[in-house]
Amino acid sequence: MTDLDQLTQSLARNLKRWRGERGFTLDQLAARAGVSRGMIIQIEQARTNPSVGTTVKLADALGVSITTLLDYEQGSPVRLVPADQTVRLWSTDAGSGTTLLVGTDARGPLELCSWRLMPGEGSRSDPHPEGTVELLHVTAGTLTLVVAETPYEMGAGTSATFEAHHPHAYRNDGTEPVELTMVVSVPPVG
After folding, report:
1. Which of 41, 70, 80, 129 shows the smallest number of beta carbons within 10 Å?
2. Mapping DSSP to helix (H, G, I), strand (E, B) and coil, where does residue 159 land?
3. 167 with 53: CB under 8 angstroms?
């Protein structure tokens, strides 16, 4: 079984489990997430690999981290994630990408990601649920953070936090690669 097959199976299993634990019907989850009922059925039957955006929408609607949806075996109070077990969320041929390093659902989903954006590239994000907060720290290059249509230049060593229920995007308008670390805190489903 390939890594992609394992990821597809884990997502199918975990989506069914969390939808059941939340007591959501297919239609309720579809409405909360803004994802079609048919897509949720295909995911739960492991017949498709959804986009990162769709996976994030489903995780947000369920009030869990995407780590939890992609796989999360609980046990020890300490969970180590070796570099070869991190989850690549997206990437481009030029070398940009985001890697989910670790996540937890303690007091609401909390995720730590490592980003790399090559010159001229960027990534847009749909607004997250009300109460979601993102924290960023740029370690190399100059990031253009755009929140609610307003751009903010962030050079290496700069940190920021913002309410992520606003539309937001990350761009590299410079000539050097941008590297940053991000933490996303999503409020628990009430």
Report:
1. 80
2. strand
3. no
